[in-house]
Specification:
The complex is a heterodimer of chains A (about 110) and B (about 110). Chain A is mainly β and about 110 residues long. Chain A contains no helices and eleven strands. In chain A, about 30% of the residues are buried. The radius of gyration of chain B is 13 Å and the shape is globular. The chains are: A mainly beta (about 110), B mainly beta (about 110).
Chain lengths: ~110, ~110
């Protein structure tokens, strides 16, 4: 059965810290992996990764995919209180629209 | 540009009642989705529509029906609500793999 596992489940850090969030997957015919940030309401798109080893970067956030070891990481440097959210990872198998989401990592950044 | 809109924002139902959750997108996306989100369970796909006129079951379709009314609108119907359907429901749309989510409908079934 296809599945996506995120770790840790929750994390509390102080402003300025660097965090690494993990997403591992077991999916047949992988096509892409996506990261979302969910604050109080709807998830908002962060990154999409399709090729292994390529880093996607946006400001203090970056992500990389390892298709051989079947995982992705999301890094946030110099964290701010506004980074507090649930971070979701989703995998899209080829030939289907059935996105498979992990349960998310809840990040809390303390001032 | 409204993106993806959902109505209602919040609803309380009694067991056995029916209701329809509405979703509309103005981005001309072909694909639309309905998810439910429960604590500790992440987002689970209920139904999706790859294009106008087609719908398919997702991971948890039991107790739900959908209608892709046109390219813009995708509704989710609960024919006989059960307490297990208490959840937050999100609609999403996409043209590639990137999904755009609506603000959600919080449903409480008593």
């Amino acid at each position: 059965e296809d599945k996506v596992v995120q770790s840790p489940l929750s994390l509390v850090v102080h402003e300025g810290d660097t965090v690494t969030l993990n997403c591992s997957y077991e999916v047949t015919n992988f096509r892409s992996l996506l990261w979302y940030k969910q604050e109080k309401k709807a998830p908002t798109f962060l990154f999409m990764l399709t090729s292994s080893g390529i880093e996607k970067k946006s400001g203090r956030l970056s992500s990389i995919l390892d298709k051989k070891e079947l995982f992705s990481i999301l890094n946030i440097t110099a964290t701010q209180t506004g980074d507090s959210a649930v971070y979701l990872c989703a995998v899209v198998p080829s030939g289907t629209y059935k996105y498979i989401f992990g349960t998310g990592t809840r990040l809390k950044v303390l001032a | 540009n409204a993106g993806v809109t959902q109505t209602p924002k919040f609803q309380v139902l009694k067991t056995g009642q029916s209701m329809t959750l509405q979703c509309a997108q103005d981005m001309n996306h072909n694909s639309m989705y309905w998810y439910r989100q429960d604590p500790g369970m992440g987002l689970r796909l209920i139904y999706y529509s790859a294009s106008e006129g087609t719908t398919d079951k997702g991971e948890v379709p039991n107790g739900y029906n959908v209608s892709r009314l046109n390219k813009r609108e995708f509704s989710l119907r609960l024919e006989s609500a059960a307490p297990s359907q208490t959840s937050v429901y999100f609609c999403a749309s996409s043209v590639t793999e990137t999904q755009y989510f609506g603000p959600g409908t919080r449903l409480l079934v008593l």
